[in-house]
Specification:
The complex is a heterotrimer of chains A (273), B (356) and C (269). By secondary structure, chain A is mainly α. Chain A has helices at 2-29, 45-52, 54-87, 91-106, 109-123, 129-154, 157-165, 170-199, 202-207, 215-221, 229-272. Chain A has a domain at 52-227: MetI-like (MetI-like fold), CATH 1.10.3720.10. Helix content of chain A is 82%, strand content 0%. With 356 residues, chain B is α/β, with parallel strands linked by helices. Chain B has helices at 2-30, 48-58, 70-79, 91-99, 176-186, 196-207, 221-226, 237-246, 275-286, 288-298, 313-316, 325-330, 339-354; strands at residues 36-42, 61-67, 86-87, 133-146, 170-173, 213-217, 232-236, 250-253, 259-267, 331-332. In chain B, the strands form 2 sheets. In chain B, strands 4, 5, 6, 7, 8, 9 and 10 form a 7-stranded mixed beta sheet that branches. In chain B, strands 2-1-3 form a 3-stranded parallel beta sheet. Chain B is globular, with a radius of gyration of 23 Å. By secondary structure, chain C is mainly alpha-helical. Chain C is built from 12 helices and no strands. Chain C has helices spanning 4-29, 41-48, 50-81, 87-95, 102-113, 118-125, 137-162, 165-173, 178-206, 211-214, 223-232, 237-257. Chain C starts with a helix and ends in a 12-residue tail after the last helix. The chains are: A mainly alpha (273), B alpha/beta (356), C mainly alpha (269). Chains A and C meet through α1, α3, α4, α5 and α6 of A and α1, α3, α4, α5 and α7 of C.
């Protein structure tokens, strides 16, 4: 019993530290004043500024579209890549592919951004939504591979072989056997890709153009004037929405699971009758 | 598999929805027609009300993009792939862009309002004759101090920063030119020196400042000073004016022996596609009332002489931001130095930062 | 497998266009000096100029400290999370903070750690007096670890979740106490997760920037800070690329050292 309490205390502490700066930001989004060091009174003023700032709202929408779409495509390509790495027969090929896969994970963003910029302009690619989307897909793929690959490695070889022996085509094997088994890895990959995309500043900065901007770029370029609390208000709203989404998604999953369980039970009951 | 497909469709649907909203949002602002002006500026470096006013007055739609450093902006313009009609480089960057033939020559007959600019701030070394640039804001490098910890007379001159009583109390700006410049000025040298021995001596002087140095930071310096984190900072007047607005204990000094004077300037890149719009905007921003409104919003010093009378008297007469003729005479503009020399400045500064 | 060529095309295309091409570009650029002439001088400067070697040493040291402290905090967290009832939800809640912009969170930390910040208020309140927290090694490592923790918890959590309860029960039945079970069963079986976390954190930690300036006050200078400066401030892309090449080499070394030695069979299931 005592052990249980200590462990919960530890977890609580970890969560408190993780959320401390976020609550700090949220707290000051209600400040009458303009800075994050002195709370001079409660006000909705920064929220009002935000809602009337159509440029900011448009930037937020851009950011979300890029994040959702790029992580989706990165997840598809990355999963295919992970399957490829898995099926590579030689260890050297496998390790070689993995190393190449990780290059973008370790290169500093500034280098990635600068080299992508040179690359796009070399190809005569117009900078804007398209180039940002491509770059985000590019730097999200490796994390998807790293999330999916362990799940594939766990797949018992016998399972796949059994599917083939039972006459399944390779498409059927993929969709009916492999993908369901690695779904958690795919979701984790999507989630991480989404995170990377939301947070990226340096790469986006270099490859954007023609009026297209994302939230990170906007926040960083405002740093010279000091980030104003309108951004805090925005982060508060985004935080609450994502919290609701996460909890909602989870509850939905649970509800579906329960329903399925009940159906199974009902069926069992019928058989037993 | 079904779950994956469901999620895929949901994500695509959300994207479509957001895209639709975004399109509608932009359609509202685009309604005024296809006359466009692309501005590439520092983040939050113009009063947004002025952009709206400009759009109403002229019917142009302003597309506004932002950057956070001269060099980053330069890289983007140099690489192409974008076409900005106006951007805002600082003095030495104007020179560099001019040399790289990235700038469009300004047709002064189309800029009648250019006469509003103070003649002191025209024809400067980075752009003689102002063929390529129109001054937007100007300022100085100086010392900010907090009167709770420091007396005014202790920080009137650069060399006073080396006073041992300021141990671990000073914040420096993370810029090789600025900090080596301070050391050069205390040694009576030019901030544009290319002499290796002078630079070496300046760096040795700077390294002696390390014990007094609390941190070497950039934009955040404002936040730190507002929060009383350090007693003294070496920073730009623009930054200083912002921190002073939020913390009444802070004051700004431009050492009378000399310092750097900087200019941010409006320029038209060669790749511009809407030059008529760019000229319309330049004339608009040069109008005294607009310049004054912008200066009040941003808090930097305006080079627009005609605008001075629209500024609150307290601002216009403030010697911290509009210093006396005598001090201005001692101020030096950075010239763009040969790349090898800039490399030398940076290597020395890195060496300084690596000293514990 | 069958028809592997077709489904691999997008991935290989990605490797070609977005990995090999940029990498080649970096290697190519590392042979040019600031005035655009071919030279080996960048490498020479890196190897002979004490500043860069010292920086490399510092970076490795700090990255190790950051990674180990992250691991130290994350492993127990992942272990405990795994025992919770709604563990997937809690895991999502661990990742959620990473969706808030990093610069903003850093500013929040500045507010928390400053002389008159909440942490010092608290210290004064409990009678410990105020301290200089910002610009110290401790605060730098703390914030760096803060940023990385979710990326360490995730892989460890996943490998723990795969652990079959029967293994632990078997170990118990064979008379092992909790410590022995942990040491002999849980830890070895979750090593892949730890390694994945190590890879995901150690190398990016070598190239941290921004917080080295904001929280560390540039008293800590990592390779990432230097690259950032060479690309954005000094425009010496050659030297920046040279350090980039060094980082990529470091990545290959780390990958080699933490590689899965039991890829082929031999794995206990």
């Amino acid at each position: 019993m005592k052990k249980w309490r200590i462990s919960n205390l530890y977890l609580a502490l970890v969560f408190i530290v993780l959320y401390l700066p976020i609550f700090y930001l949220i707290f000051y989004s209600f400040n009458v004043g303009d800075t994050m060091d002195h709370f001079s009174g409660f006000s909705w003023r920064h929220y009002a500024t935000l809602l009337s700032d159509s440029r900011m709202i448009s930037i937020v929408l851009n950011t979300l579209i890029i994040a959702l779409l790029s992580s989706l495509i990165a997840t598809i390509v990355g999963t295919m890549g992970a399957l490829g790495i898995y099926s590579a027969k030689k260890a050297t090929v496998k390790n070689g592919l993995l190393s190449l896969n990780n290059v973008l994970m370790v290169s500093p963003d500034v280098i990635i951004g600068a080299s992508f910029l040179i690359f796009f302009t070399f190809l005569g690619f117009s900078l804007g939504f398209g180039s940002v989307l491509l770059s985000h897909i590019a730097f999200s793929i490796p994390i998807v591979v790293l999330m999916v690959l362990p799940k594939i490695n766990e797949l018992p070889k016998t399972m796949v072989d059994a599917a083939y022996d039972l006459g399944a085509s390779s498409w059927q094997t993929l969709t009916k056997v492999i993908l369901p088994a690695i779904t958690p890895g795919i979701f984790a990959g999507y989630f991480m890709a989404f995170t990377y995309s939301l947070d990226d500043f340096a790469v986006t900065f270099f490859v954007t153009g023609n009026g297209f901007s994302t939230l990170s770029v906007e926040i960083y370029s405002r740093a010279r004037q000091g980030v104003d609390l309108e951004v805090n208000a925005l982060s508060t709203l985004m935080f609450i929405v994502s919290l609701l989404l996460v909890v909602g998604y989870y509850l939905l999953g649970r509800y579906n699971q329960n329903r399925r369980l009940q159906r199974v039970k009902a069926a069992e009951a019928k058989i037993n009758q | 598999m079904k779950r994956i497909m469901t999620i895929l469709i949901i994500v695509l649907a959300i994207c479509g929805l957001l895209g639709g909203i975004n399109y509608r949002l932009n359609a509202q602002t685009n309604a005024e027609g296809s006359k466009v002006l692309n501005i590439y500026n520092w983040g939050d470096y113009i009063d947004p009300a002025l952009i709206t006013k400009f759009e109403h007055q002229t019917g142009y739609h302003v597309v506004y993009e932002t950057f956070d450093s001269n060099e980053a902006m330069l890289t983007k313009i140099k690489q192409g792939g974008t076409s900005y009609d106006l951007t805002v480089p600082s003095d030495y960057t104007v020179q560099r862009m001019r040399r790289a033939k990235l700038l469009e020559k300004i047709d002064k007959s189309k800029l009648p309002a250019l006469k509003n600019i103070d003649s002191r701030f025209m024809n400067l070394s980075f752009d003689p004759n102002n063929d390529y640039s129109v001054p937007y804001f100007w300022g100085t490098l100086g010392i900010v101090y907090n009167d709770q910890y420091v007396n005014a007379n202790q920080v009137q001159h650069w060399r006073q920063l080396w006073n041992p009583r300021f141990k671990n109390k000073i914040m420096l700006t993370d810029s090789a030119r600025d900090m080596l410049g301070v050391a050069l000025i205390t040694q009576g040298k030019s901030v544009n020196t290319t002499n290796a021995a002078d630079l070496q001596a300046a760096n040795e002087q700077l390294i002696k400042l390390m014990p007094n140095t609390k941190a070497v930071v950039a934009d955040e310096i404002k936040m730190y000073m507002e929060q009383n984190e350090a007693a003294i900072a070496v920073t730009y007047s623009g930054e200083a004016s912002e921190m002073m607005a939020n913390n009444s204990h802070l004051h700004y000094v431009v050492p009378s022996e000399g310092s750097n004077i900087w200019f941010d300037n409006l320029v038209i890149p060669k790749t511009a596609k809407h030059k008529a719009a760019a000229y319309a905007f330049l004339n608009f921003m040069l109008q005294p009332k607009n310049a004054a409104q912008n200066a009040e919003y941003i808090g930097y010093s305006t080079p627009n002489k005609a605008a001075m009378k629209y500024l609150p008297k307290k601002v216009a007469d403030d010697p911290q931001f509009y210093p006396s003729e005598k001090t201005v005479a001692h101020l030096q503009v950075y010239r763009d130095l040969p790349l090898k020399v800039i490399g030398k400045y940076n290597d020395l500064f890195l060496q300084f930062k690596m000293t514990k | 497998m069958h028809k592997k060529a077709t489904y691999l095309i997008p991935y290989l295309l990605w490797i070609g266009l977005f990995v090999i091409a940029p990498m080649a570009l970096i290697v190519y650029q590392s042979f040019f000096n600031i005035t655009g002439h071919f030279t080996l001088g960048n490498y020479e400067q890196y190897l002979t100029n004490g500043v860069y070697l010292k920086m490399t040493f510092n970076s490795i040291l700090y990255a190790l400290i950051i990674t180990l402290s992250t691991l130290l905090i994350s492993y127990p967290t992942a272990l405990l999370l795994n025992r919770l009832k709604n563990k997937q939800l809690w895991l999502l809640l661990i990742i959620l903070p990473t969706w808030i912009n990093l610069l903003l969170k850093t500013y929040a930390f500045i507010g928390l750690f400053s002389q008159n910040g909440s942490v010092n208020d608290f210290l004064r309140f409990v009678g410990l007096g105020s301290h200089q927290i910002l610009f110290t090694d401790a605060s730098f490592i703390f914030v760096a670890a803060y940023i990385e923790i979710p990326f360490m918890i995730l892989p460890i959590f996943n490998s723990l979740a795969e652990l079959k309860p029967s293994m632990i029960n078997a170990s118990r039945d064979l008379g092992a106490n909790s410590w022995q079970t942990f040491r002999r069963v849980i830890l070895p079986l979750t090593m892949p997760g730890v390694k994945a976390g190590f890879q995901a954190i150690f190398i990016p930690s070598l190239s941290l920037f921004m917080i080295t300036r904001l929280i560390g006050g540039n008293r800590v200078i990592t390779l990432g800070t230097a690259i950032e400066e060479h690309f954005l401030v000094t425009q010496n892309w050659g030297m920046g690329s040279t350090i980039g090449v060094i980082l990529i080499l470091a990545m290959f070394v780390v990958m080699y050292l933490t590689r899965d030695r039991k890829v082929k069979g031999g794995r206990i299931r």
